[in-house]
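User: Sequence in, structure out. Go.
Assistant: Echoing your sequence, followed by the structure tokens.
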Amino acid sequence: MQEVQLAILDVICSVVKKKGIIAYSTCAIVEIENAEVVQKFLQRHPEFEKIIVPYPASVKAIADR
């Protein structure tokens, strides 16, 4: 599944505007799976950088249940 996700990101990054943002999100419950995809993507595309978007407190409270 990671290869499919990477292929999708490879296509998307070719059409995102300069200084644009790609929001990457999946329904995977294994966090390491997503982290590996992001790491591989950034290795392939050093022109992109990872930014952390903090959860609003209300969403974090639900996620922490």
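User: And one key feature?
Assistant: Residues 31-44 form the longest helix (14 residues).
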